[in-house]
Amino acid sequence: MDYNTDEQEIDLKDLMFAVFHKWRPVILVAVICGLLLGGVKGYMTYKSQSDPEVRKEADLTYSADLELYEKNKETYEREIENLRTDIINQQDYLDNSIWINMSPYDVGEARVDLYVSTGYEIMPGMTYQNRDYTDTILQAYQSMLTSSAVMEDVAKKVGTESRYLKELVTVTIGTIGTNGNQFSRLLTIDVYHTSKEEAKKVLDAFIAHVNEMQAQITASIGEHTVSTVNESVSTLVNLDLADLQKTQSQKITDLNDSLQEKQTELDELEEPKREDSSKKAAVKSAIKFGLVGGFGGAFLVAFIVCVAFLMGDKVYSSRELKERYKVKILGKLSAGKKVGAIDAWLNRLEGRACNVDEAVEYKLIAANVKNYAGDMKKILVTGSADAGVLAHAVEALKSELGEIQVVAGNNMLEDVQTVRELPECDGVILVEQCGVSKYSAVEAEIEKILDLKKSVVGCVVFE
Known about the structure:
Number of strands: 9
Strand content: 15-25%
Radius of gyration: 53 Å
Low-confidence stretches: 125-129
């Protein structure tokens, strides 16, 4: 019979149940460690928190943290409110601005160049010349045309708001040359709109105001005349407008991103908590470290059990015997130990023999022996189980195997008579006991049996 003597793989299921079966020491050590660590930490916390100086310093720290928290909270709330207002205003601007909503590839333009003349002439040969008020008059026209009052009036006439109208209108002062000299004489009004017709409508409203202003400026500054040099209406492409529209659209995206960022920072802002009273803090600390100590103690016991399981040589399960030495398992019986409800439940989960009818099980074992023994007439029953368990198994098998001679043996590794009986038998039944028998002993028994060219009929395992 071949069997595996190579290094065995660790069965995680067996390892897990080995730890579960040690639930009593796990709980006991966990409770002790939890009480010790929790009690010590709770006492130290109570002693520390009861110190007046420590308490005073804690109160000062809390006050400073609370003040900083309130200040940061107020700042975030103010910034969020400002951002929300900016978003509303920006969205309103994007929705209603004529300049932003017109097509940059089809901009209507209406333009007029007005020549302003005061009749001023330079007197040849005169040291002192009369004052030229032309620049002052031009600046007066420019100031009045771009004033809020005029913008409001024109905006009402064309059906818009002055803030949107200002983006459409520019009033500039131009120059003309005479004999190589440059003089300010031109007043240019340039209007952009969604169409030529709309631009012309706005321009006409401003020209009407120029006519109304002439008398006022004449009375305030001096006589002058205003004449139209050039007036045109056309369409054009304004790529700068396209860039501006992209910039304004991106602005609302940036504002929304900033709002979300500030809101996240506000949500993550944590209000400082005042330290609990010494008793309350001690209880919290004791519970916290008690749990840590409990888990630590449980882990320590589980670790020790795992090491003992990995380093130990005791037989743990019938399945392990079968896989390691390729022996047939004739049957599994309970070792007779009384176990509690939890251990019995764990045994059932693990598949161990529990609540087994011994008489029925021995009949099953006897049937298996007859099937596997073939023509064998004499079988030796031996093993490394406890002597009482082994003797009981021998007696039970003798009563069930009437036609086969059953020879009672002890541990062949220790008993000389059993070793002498081995060559006279046709086969061997091993009786092993979990937690008592050792894998090394089972291996030695099988080696002795095979060396004498005898067969291992199978193994009866007490769990």
